[in-house]
Design a protein that fits this description.
There is one protein chain. The protein is an all-alpha fold. The protein is built from twelve helices and no strands. Helix 2 crosses helix 6 (119-134), helix 9 runs antiparallel to helix 10 and helix 10 packs across helix 12 (240-250). 37% of the residues are buried.
Protein backbone atom coordinates (compact mmCIF):
# COMPACT_ATOMS: atom_id res chain seq x y z
CA UNK A 1 0.00 0.00 0.00
CA UNK A 2 2.86 2.39 0.85
CA UNK A 3 4.43 1.57 -2.52
CA UNK A 4 1.19 2.52 -4.31
CA UNK A 5 1.02 5.81 -2.41
CA UNK A 6 4.62 6.61 -3.32
CA UNK A 7 3.94 5.66 -6.95
CA UNK A 8 0.88 7.92 -7.05
CA UNK A 9 2.75 10.84 -5.52
CA UNK A 10 5.91 10.55 -7.63
CA UNK A 11 4.41 9.57 -10.98
CA UNK A 12 0.75 10.58 -11.14
CA UNK A 13 0.53 13.60 -8.85
CA UNK A 14 3.81 14.97 -10.21
CA UNK A 15 2.20 15.35 -13.67
CA UNK A 16 4.73 12.94 -15.18
CA UNK A 17 2.06 10.37 -16.00
CA UNK A 18 -0.32 12.67 -17.87
CA UNK A 19 2.65 14.02 -19.82
CA UNK A 20 3.75 10.50 -20.77
CA UNK A 21 0.31 9.37 -21.93
CA UNK A 22 -0.21 12.62 -23.84
CA UNK A 23 3.12 12.09 -25.57
CA UNK A 24 2.26 8.48 -26.43
CA UNK A 25 -1.04 9.66 -27.92
CA UNK A 26 0.94 11.97 -30.20
CA UNK A 27 3.46 9.22 -31.02
CA UNK A 28 0.59 7.00 -32.23
CA UNK A 29 -0.31 9.55 -34.92
CA UNK A 30 3.32 10.34 -35.69
CA UNK A 31 3.94 6.67 -36.48
CA UNK A 32 0.79 6.51 -38.60
CA UNK A 33 1.94 9.55 -40.58
CA UNK A 34 5.61 8.42 -40.73
CA UNK A 35 6.81 11.54 -38.90
CA UNK A 36 8.25 9.70 -35.86
CA UNK A 37 11.33 11.51 -34.52
CA UNK A 38 12.85 11.37 -31.04
CA UNK A 39 13.51 15.14 -30.77
CA UNK A 40 9.80 15.75 -31.47
CA UNK A 41 8.82 13.23 -28.79
CA UNK A 42 11.06 14.99 -26.27
CA UNK A 43 9.63 18.35 -27.32
CA UNK A 44 6.05 17.17 -26.75
CA UNK A 45 6.82 15.60 -23.38
CA UNK A 46 8.62 18.71 -22.07
CA UNK A 47 5.80 20.94 -23.31
CA UNK A 48 3.10 18.86 -21.62
CA UNK A 49 5.11 18.40 -18.42
CA UNK A 50 6.02 22.04 -17.94
CA UNK A 51 2.49 23.13 -18.85
CA UNK A 52 0.82 20.85 -16.32
CA UNK A 53 3.33 21.80 -13.61
CA UNK A 54 2.58 25.46 -14.23
CA UNK A 55 -1.18 24.87 -14.02
CA UNK A 56 -0.93 22.87 -10.80
CA UNK A 57 1.60 24.94 -8.86
CA UNK A 58 1.04 28.53 -10.01
CA UNK A 59 -0.86 29.40 -6.82
CA UNK A 60 1.53 27.67 -4.42
CA UNK A 61 4.79 28.58 -2.68
CA UNK A 62 6.62 26.53 -5.33
CA UNK A 63 5.59 28.91 -8.11
CA UNK A 64 8.96 30.67 -8.50
CA UNK A 65 10.73 27.32 -8.83
CA UNK A 66 8.19 26.20 -11.41
CA UNK A 67 8.58 29.49 -13.28
CA UNK A 68 12.34 29.01 -13.49
CA UNK A 69 11.85 25.38 -14.55
CA UNK A 70 9.39 26.43 -17.24
CA UNK A 71 11.77 29.09 -18.53
CA UNK A 72 14.51 26.47 -18.82
CA UNK A 73 12.05 24.09 -20.49
CA UNK A 74 11.14 26.80 -22.99
CA UNK A 75 14.80 27.29 -23.89
CA UNK A 76 15.28 23.54 -24.34
CA UNK A 77 12.17 23.27 -26.51
CA UNK A 78 13.23 26.21 -28.66
CA UNK A 79 16.67 24.62 -29.11
CA UNK A 80 15.12 21.27 -30.08
CA UNK A 81 12.92 22.94 -32.68
CA UNK A 82 15.61 25.20 -34.16
CA UNK A 83 18.19 22.41 -34.25
CA UNK A 84 15.88 19.71 -35.66
CA UNK A 85 13.06 21.50 -37.47
CA UNK A 86 12.40 25.05 -38.71
CA UNK A 87 10.95 28.42 -37.74
CA UNK A 88 7.44 27.33 -38.79
CA UNK A 89 7.54 24.54 -36.20
CA UNK A 90 8.73 27.08 -33.63
CA UNK A 91 5.75 29.33 -34.40
CA UNK A 92 3.33 26.41 -34.12
CA UNK A 93 4.81 25.43 -30.76
CA UNK A 94 4.63 29.01 -29.49
CA UNK A 95 0.94 29.31 -30.43
CA UNK A 96 0.12 26.06 -28.62
CA UNK A 97 2.01 27.26 -25.53
CA UNK A 98 0.04 30.53 -25.55
CA UNK A 99 -3.22 28.59 -25.85
CA UNK A 100 -2.12 26.59 -22.81
CA UNK A 101 -1.48 29.78 -20.83
CA UNK A 102 -4.95 31.08 -21.74
CA UNK A 103 -6.46 27.94 -20.22
CA UNK A 104 -5.49 28.83 -16.66
CA UNK A 105 -3.08 31.61 -15.67
CA UNK A 106 -2.89 33.72 -12.53
CA UNK A 107 -2.26 36.96 -14.46
CA UNK A 108 -5.58 36.75 -16.36
CA UNK A 109 -8.83 38.08 -14.91
CA UNK A 110 -10.83 35.64 -17.01
CA UNK A 111 -9.30 32.44 -18.32
CA UNK A 112 -10.76 29.48 -20.18
CA UNK A 113 -11.15 27.27 -17.11
CA UNK A 114 -13.51 29.86 -15.60
CA UNK A 115 -15.85 29.85 -18.60
CA UNK A 116 -18.79 27.45 -18.09
CA UNK A 117 -18.77 24.29 -20.25
CA UNK A 118 -15.81 25.42 -22.36
CA UNK A 119 -13.00 23.64 -20.51
CA UNK A 120 -13.57 20.16 -21.95
CA UNK A 121 -13.53 21.40 -25.55
CA UNK A 122 -10.50 23.60 -24.99
CA UNK A 123 -8.38 20.76 -23.62
CA UNK A 124 -9.44 18.66 -26.61
CA UNK A 125 -8.45 21.52 -28.93
CA UNK A 126 -4.93 21.93 -27.51
CA UNK A 127 -4.16 18.19 -27.50
CA UNK A 128 -5.57 17.87 -31.02
CA UNK A 129 -3.36 20.69 -32.31
CA UNK A 130 -0.29 18.91 -30.96
CA UNK A 131 -1.24 15.76 -32.89
CA UNK A 132 -2.49 17.22 -36.16
CA UNK A 133 -0.44 20.39 -36.55
CA UNK A 134 2.71 20.56 -34.43
CA UNK A 135 4.06 17.17 -35.51
CA UNK A 136 3.02 17.32 -39.18
CA UNK A 137 4.14 19.44 -42.14
CA UNK A 138 0.52 20.40 -42.82
CA UNK A 139 -2.65 20.54 -40.75
CA UNK A 140 -4.54 17.21 -40.82
CA UNK A 141 -8.29 17.60 -40.33
CA UNK A 142 -9.03 13.88 -39.75
CA UNK A 143 -6.35 13.59 -37.04
CA UNK A 144 -7.61 16.82 -35.50
CA UNK A 145 -11.17 15.47 -35.32
CA UNK A 146 -10.11 12.05 -33.99
CA UNK A 147 -7.99 13.65 -31.28
CA UNK A 148 -10.44 16.43 -30.45
CA UNK A 149 -13.46 14.17 -29.94
CA UNK A 150 -11.52 11.51 -28.06
CA UNK A 151 -9.75 13.85 -25.62
CA UNK A 152 -12.90 15.92 -25.05
CA UNK A 153 -14.66 12.69 -24.10
CA UNK A 154 -11.88 11.84 -21.63
CA UNK A 155 -12.14 15.21 -19.89
CA UNK A 156 -15.85 14.73 -19.11
CA UNK A 157 -15.25 11.99 -16.47
CA UNK A 158 -12.97 14.44 -14.65
CA UNK A 159 -15.88 16.87 -14.51
CA UNK A 160 -17.91 14.03 -12.97
CA UNK A 161 -15.16 13.57 -10.38
CA UNK A 162 -15.06 17.29 -9.57
CA UNK A 163 -18.77 18.09 -9.82
CA UNK A 164 -19.13 18.77 -6.08
CA UNK A 165 -16.08 21.03 -5.89
CA UNK A 166 -16.22 22.87 -9.22
CA UNK A 167 -17.21 26.52 -8.86
CA UNK A 168 -18.16 26.92 -12.54
CA UNK A 169 -20.95 25.25 -14.46
CA UNK A 170 -19.95 21.89 -15.94
CA UNK A 171 -21.87 19.27 -17.90
CA UNK A 172 -22.46 16.92 -14.92
CA UNK A 173 -23.80 19.80 -12.84
CA UNK A 174 -25.98 21.03 -15.69
CA UNK A 175 -27.40 17.84 -17.22
CA UNK A 176 -26.44 15.14 -14.71
CA UNK A 177 -23.87 12.35 -14.62
CA UNK A 178 -25.68 9.92 -16.89
CA UNK A 179 -26.32 12.44 -19.67
CA UNK A 180 -22.68 13.53 -19.44
CA UNK A 181 -21.67 9.91 -20.01
CA UNK A 182 -23.93 9.75 -23.05
CA UNK A 183 -22.11 12.76 -24.53
CA UNK A 184 -18.75 11.10 -23.80
CA UNK A 185 -19.92 7.84 -25.45
CA UNK A 186 -21.00 9.78 -28.54
CA UNK A 187 -17.70 11.64 -28.79
CA UNK A 188 -15.66 8.43 -28.46
CA UNK A 189 -17.85 6.72 -31.07
CA UNK A 190 -17.37 9.59 -33.54
CA UNK A 191 -13.60 9.49 -33.05
CA UNK A 192 -13.59 5.70 -33.58
CA UNK A 193 -15.68 6.09 -36.72
CA UNK A 194 -13.36 8.70 -38.24
CA UNK A 195 -10.30 6.63 -37.26
CA UNK A 196 -11.70 3.52 -38.93
CA UNK A 197 -12.19 5.39 -42.22
CA UNK A 198 -9.02 7.50 -42.23
CA UNK A 199 -6.23 5.65 -40.43
CA UNK A 200 -4.34 2.69 -41.84
CA UNK A 201 -5.96 -0.63 -40.91
CA UNK A 202 -3.68 -1.59 -38.03
CA UNK A 203 -3.92 1.92 -36.56
CA UNK A 204 -7.69 2.03 -36.97
CA UNK A 205 -7.95 -1.35 -35.23
CA UNK A 206 -5.73 -0.18 -32.35
CA UNK A 207 -7.87 2.91 -31.94
CA UNK A 208 -11.09 0.87 -32.10
CA UNK A 209 -9.88 -1.43 -29.30
CA UNK A 210 -8.90 1.62 -27.27
CA UNK A 211 -12.37 3.02 -27.76
CA UNK A 212 -13.95 -0.12 -26.30
CA UNK A 213 -11.83 0.10 -23.14
CA UNK A 214 -12.62 3.81 -22.93
CA UNK A 215 -16.36 3.11 -23.11
CA UNK A 216 -16.04 0.74 -20.16
CA UNK A 217 -14.04 3.17 -18.04
CA UNK A 218 -16.46 6.00 -18.76
CA UNK A 219 -19.38 3.74 -17.82
CA UNK A 220 -17.94 3.15 -14.34
CA UNK A 221 -17.01 6.80 -13.75
CA UNK A 222 -18.76 8.05 -10.62
CA UNK A 223 -18.21 11.01 -8.33
CA UNK A 224 -17.67 8.70 -5.36
CA UNK A 225 -14.73 6.87 -6.98
CA UNK A 226 -11.20 7.39 -5.74
CA UNK A 227 -9.13 9.98 -7.59
CA UNK A 228 -6.74 7.26 -8.80
CA UNK A 229 -9.51 5.82 -10.97
CA UNK A 230 -9.50 9.05 -12.97
CA UNK A 231 -5.88 10.22 -12.73
CA UNK A 232 -4.61 6.75 -13.67
CA UNK A 233 -7.49 4.79 -15.23
CA UNK A 234 -9.17 7.45 -17.39
CA UNK A 235 -5.87 9.18 -18.09
CA UNK A 236 -4.42 5.91 -19.42
CA UNK A 237 -6.98 5.82 -22.24
CA UNK A 238 -4.95 8.30 -24.30
CA UNK A 239 -1.99 5.89 -24.24
CA UNK A 240 -4.08 2.86 -25.27
CA UNK A 241 -3.92 3.41 -29.07
CA UNK A 242 -0.12 3.32 -28.95
CA UNK A 243 -0.06 0.33 -26.57
CA UNK A 244 -2.47 -1.69 -28.71
CA UNK A 245 -0.43 -0.77 -31.78
CA UNK A 246 2.75 -2.09 -30.16
CA UNK A 247 0.98 -5.32 -29.15
CA UNK A 248 -0.31 -5.90 -32.68
CA UNK A 249 2.99 -5.03 -34.35
CA UNK A 250 5.29 -7.09 -32.15
CA UNK A 251 3.14 -9.87 -30.67
Amino acid sequence: MNFLKILKKTVIDSQIYVSVVGTLFAVFFMKEQNTFRFPTILLIFITYFSGYLYTKYQYTRHFLKILVLNAAAGVVCAFLIIHNHNEIRLLKWFIIVVLGLLYNSFFLDVYIRKIPLLKVFYVGLVWALVNCWLTLPEFSLPIFLISFFFITALVLPFDIRDMKSDTVQTFPKLIGVQNTKYIAYLLVFISMLIASFYLKTIYGTAFFLSGIITFILIYFSENKRDDTYFSFGIESCSALPFLFLVIMEYF
